[in-house]
Amino acid sequence: MTAYGTAHTTACLTAGLTAGAPADLAALRGGSSAGAAAYAARVRAVSRRLVALDNEPGAPPVAPLAVRAFADVRRVLRQGGATRATRDVLAAAAELAEIAGWALFSAGRFAAARRANREALRLARLAGDRPIELLVYQNMGLLAGWTGRSGEELALARTVLDGRRLPPRVEALFRAREAQGLAGTGRAWEARRSFARARGLLEESAPASTPGWAWWITPEEIDRQEGGVLHRAGEWREAIPVLRRATADTDVRVGYHSVAAVRLLASLVEVRSWREAERVAAALPPAVAQTTSRVTLGLLADVARRGLRQCRAPGALREALHGVLRAADARAAAGYAALGSP
């Protein structure tokens, strides 16, 4: 998408927030419960559209859209609305800040993602919104692990696990996060045990207290995370069957689905399983063309370049890897022209 296209999408997405800002501010300052409820509903509507867009194949990156939308909400709160903001308004703002933090991580803007996460956590606590607070902790742990701070990732996971009782699906997510922190700090056996516990928790029925955002926590998600740990540890043969399961077609689709396929390709190349690696590589370019995540595209390009350095790789695989690299570079250039440098 061009810079104009991104700007146009931003304007359309946030028009309902900016157009009503003066009235919203007046309603919040005046203590109008109806005005506050209407404003919170509009903020949540923007959040829903952002989440849908983030998981839509081939959509523009949502980071600039989410950042702009949250800036509009924060402006209303800072201009006097925060003193009278209801819990509902604060919770809606926290959810939007959480989405901005996730989108900034996906765009490779890690410092900005940390700031957004901290703001989301602050707002969620002010609102008493435990479900969003938990999701922010998950995002903070993800960011810590991705940027090499495994001890912090482990500490964040255990802060949640040692607190109040969690719904099984949410606990499974934090057990998987705990496992990744354990693996990153050299405790592989404990990591395996935490992953096994996460899988067991997913077999339990989901109670009514399960937050709505937990829809994407599936066995395939746990496989994707454990496969990533095994891949990074150089346990490629063990990673392959786990990553195969993670790439299975399911009804649950997320914007970063191709990460598992990328790590599967990397593992196959490392063990010189050329034929399967060629099949995986040949199937990736169409998926890459629909990928919006800069971190995913960067990982994919690194894997393709590493595979091309394998002097024994057969010609068909090398051609497939060239196709992957071309697709990743083209998507990165087209999708993030409006984002600038991370």
Largest sheet: none
What is the gyration radius calculated from CA atoms?
A: 21 Å
Strand content: under 5%
- Structural class, by secondary structure, is mainly alpha
Mean pLDDT score:
85
Oligomeric state of the chains in view = single chain
Number of strands: 0
First-to-last CA distance: 18 Å
**Helix coverage percent of residues?**
over 70%
Residue stretches low in confidence (pLDDT < 50, at least 5 long) are: 1-7
List the helices and strands in order: HHHHHHHHHHHHHHHH
Helix count equals: 16
Shape: globular
Main attributes of the structure:
mainly alpha, 16 helices, 342 residues, globular
Task: Give your account of this protein's structure.
With about 350 residues, the protein is mainly alpha-helical. It is built from 16 helices and no strands.
Topology:
Blueprint: H1 3-19, H2 21-29, H3 33-54, H4 63-81, H5 87-106, H6 110-127, H7 130-146, H8 150-161, H9 168-184, H10 188-202, H11 219-232, H12 236-246, H13 258-270, H14 274-288, H15 294-308, H16 315-335
Helix pairs in contact: 1-3, 1-4, 2-3, 2-4, 3-4, 3-5, 4-5, 5-6, 5-7, 6-7, 7-8, 7-9, 8-9, 9-10, 9-11, 11-12, 11-13, 12-13, 13-14, 13-15, 14-16, 15-16
Short note summarizing the structure:
The protein is mainly alpha-helical and 342 residues long. It has 16 helices and no strands.
